[in-house]
Amino acid sequence: MPLAKLQPTDTRALFRPVAAELLRVLKALPPSEWERPTIAGSWLLRDVVAHLIDVAFRRLSFHRDRLIPPPPSRPINSERDFIDFINGINAEWVNANRRLSPRILTDLLEKSTTELATHFETLPFEAPALFGVSWAGEQTSEGWFDVGREFTELWHHQEQIRLAIGAPPLADARFLHAVLEIAVRGLPHAFRDTKAAEGDTVVLEVGGPAGGLWTLTRRENRWELESGEPPRTTTRIRVSDKNAWRLLFNALKGDTPRTVVEAEGQPELVAAFLAARSVVV
Q: How much is the pLDDT for 1?
């Protein structure tokens, strides 16, 4: 598969079916299951649900209803300041929602995700972004990329919930493939401080039904991402679709990322991939 320019990924029609699958799982859970730990740090299952309600209502308020976001309580002068700000507002909402029952949380999730799906389904594909995708190093993004980032939130937090209760992953490979197409766009930013010779390449080969093939190329002191692979490869990384999303969404802890990839080539380029994340952490 020769190198080709990346094409936009349209996730607008995927929110409704993915949210419906999550609601089906949650409505079958007894209250005790809502207290299960998850791979999302210290968050319990109920906290992950609360966070999904938060991001959906935030998006509807700021995007659909054009509410101006309140300013941060402290100036944001660096990427670290931004991460701390996001983590802070996430924690505020989650802590407050610990006073709500699973039934109330489920009702709120159903309302918020239904309205969110309707909003995105009626949003023109060329509509401007509400926010830049920070984990891709962008202050201003294409609208479809901003929407796609929102879809990765819904999808990967649902997978965290499914892992917590031992439920199978979402069966439709279209959903994970779309998540990976969005997530890999953060790789040039993740590699920004990784030096290499002009023309050096990193081929990422993701196996499985949701997989794909992408190449990072060093050109004019920056990294560029394309689909496919070139005739000459400096470094090749192979990983399953299941482990690719877990790595990029910070679901693998400690040295586990090194155990789930096969790599050949320059160690520093492999290390940069292992440290890449497509989520604010």
A: 85
